[in-house]
Specification:
229 residues; mainly beta; 5-stranded antiparallel sheet; 5-stranded mixed beta barrel; 14 strands; 14% helix; globular
Length: 229
């Protein structure tokens, strides 16, 4: 699962990292992005890579519920090509959800202890799907979901699912509208634990209203989590 994540890279860094040719979004660093909030995505329009802003929580075009609190934040990789909510976006509306890291929680008695996980390269892209449509009332809806898969050894003690993190080659295949279905399915694999690290952060992260650089500061008493398998 992915329920909160972080993006503090500058627009210039993001444009360079993803070879973006057209920017349609404004951005400022975010340290506690929650569902139903704006996120940055990279998608393909013809031969052009576009940086767009979308709301996190996929609302398919055929749905009757347009509540801003609703939406599918995560889509399981195993059923992307099967479920009606995901089938069309999987075929023709794929994107990269841009991130610098994400949070997971460890349960301890009656509390939830947040941990920040990141790749040794940043920014990076979660595999995402999106939909764009206009409601009968004229409201333009640009929404997306993050694709998840089985957790690696580093994340597994916290949750059995994690976002699909695509490497640079996989990003190009994911965005390419001509990539065959079987190849797309192959891309949705678990990221290597060797490429990731994490550490405990302040319990203030539990509230999505706390969105400052202090969110990703390590708790002094804890060290860096690395893969030991």
């Amino acid at each position: 699962m992915c329920g909160r994540f972080v993006l503090y890279s500058s627009l210039d860094e993001i444009v360079r990292a993803f070879d973006v040719q057209l920017v349609r979004a404004q951005w400022h660093p975010r340290y506690n992005i929650a569902p139903a909030q704006p996120v940055l995505v990279v998608r393909q329009e013809g031969d052009v890579r576009v940086l767009d802003e979308m709301r996190w929580g996929l609302i398919p075009y055929w749905t009757q519920d347009r509540s801003p609190r609703e939406g599918i934040i995560n889509a399981r990789a195993e059923t992307l090509h099967q479920k009606p909510s995901f089938r069309r976006p999987f075929v023709s509306q794929r994107c990269l959800v841009v991130a610098d890291g994400f949070y997971e929680w460890r349960k301890s008695d009656h509390t939830r202890i947040p941990f920040f996980f990141y790749l040794k390269r940043r920014p990076f892209g979660f595999a995402g799907i999106y939909d764009i449509w206009q409601s009968p009332e004229g409201e333009a809806l640009h929404t997306c979901a993050i694709v998840t898969t089985n957790a690696n050894a580093l994340i597994r003690p916290f949750h059995d699912r994690m976002p699909v993190v695509l490497d640079k080659e996989a990003e190009s295949y994911w965005l390419d509208p001509g990539t065959p279905t079987m190849k797309l399915i192959e891309l949705l694999r678990t990221a290597s634990a060797e490429d990731m690290e994490g550490y405990e952060v302040s319990p203030k992260v539990n509230s999505f209203t706390w969105d400052t650089p202090e969110c990703i500061l390590p708790v002094p008493r804890t060290g860096i989590l690395k893969n030991t398998v």
